[in-house]
Write a structure and sequence with these properties.
Length: 200
């Protein structure tokens, strides 16, 4: 292989392995006046943020509006962000709080619709693959989760449905990680008890 060709291949490999710019670096660039850096943060987290908020509201347009409001507030409060901490839990804390506040203001229950059609229930395995039966099971699960206190429902959704780690949930909810682990264990126990009671 000619020397110049080998060099080019090496350059391509090095380029492919180049790491993404860290959130902390992007935040610092925004603080220095580089607004395009915040656009990168939006692109990085927008889809997941909308999906998480959609767990708390039943309307996609509303979820997208709340996500945009989340980014706006994050931008306005960026000087309050501690760069020693992770950016994503701080961002999702704003989004989750906005979603919950939205429903409190209107005196609605947060958990009317919890699972999307594509969601997989992590506790209940339908006895058959029939879609009608699956929908019935999902509706029963919604009713059961709706009975859980808010502090348990929130942890259950973020951990078992959105796969946030305990440390991330602790940052999002501003609680100790040990508290999150205890609430999650308690939430699962309570869910199981309510589920069995409903089935009986």
């Amino acid at each position: 292989m000619p020397h110049h060709t080998k060099t080019r291949v090496t350059e391509i490999r090095d380029s492919e392995q180049e790491p993404l710019i860290s959130d902390t670096r992007l935040v610092e660039e925004v603080r220095q006046g580089e607004q395009s850096a915040f656009g990168t943060l939006v692109q990085r987290y927008e889809r997941r943020l909308v999906r998480v908020i959609l767990r708390f509201v039943s309307d996609l347009d509303l979820a997208e509006d709340l996500a945009q409001e989340t980014f706006l507030r994050a931008y306005e409060r960026l000087d309050q962000f501690d760069p020693a901490r992770r950016f994503s839990p701080w961002l999702f804390r704003i989004g989750v709080n906005l979603a919950m506040d939205h429903h409190r203001r209107r005196r609605r229950r947060i958990w009317t619709i919890l699972f999307s059609d594509q969601s997989r229930d992590r506790w209940i395995e339908p006895a058959a693959a029939d879609q009608t039966m699956k929908r019935d099971v999902q509706q029963e699960v919604r009713r059961v989760i709706d009975q859980l206190p808010e502090k348990y429902r929130t942890v259950l959704v973020l951990r078992d449905m959105e796969n946030f780690s305990s440390s991330e949930i602790a940052a999002i909810l501003n609680r100790r990680e040990a508290t999150i682990r205890w609430r999650l264990a308690e939430a699962r126990i309570r869910f199981q008890e309510l589920w069995e009671k409903q089935r009986d």
